[in-house]
Amino acid sequence: MKIIQVVGARPQFVKLAPLSKVIRAAGHEELIVHSGQHYDIQMNEVFFRDMEIPAPDFNLSVGSGTQAVQTAEILSLLEPILIKQKPDLLIVYGDTNTTLAGALAASKLQIKIAHVESCLRSFNRSMPEEINRIVTDHISDILLVPTQKAMENAQREGLTDKCHLVGDIMVDSLAFGIDKARAESKVLHELKLKADQPYYLLTLHRPYNVDDPKKLNHILSSLDSLGTKIVFPVHPRTRKILQSLPNKQFSNIGFVAPQAYLDFLMLMDNCSLMLSDSGGIQKEAYILGKPCVTLRPETEWVETVESGWNMLLPPEDSSFPSAISGFQKPETHPDIFGQNVAQRMLEVLERE
Question: Which CA distances in Å does 323 have to 15, 253, 265, 290, 314?
Answer without folding.
Answer: 32, 18, 26, 17, 11
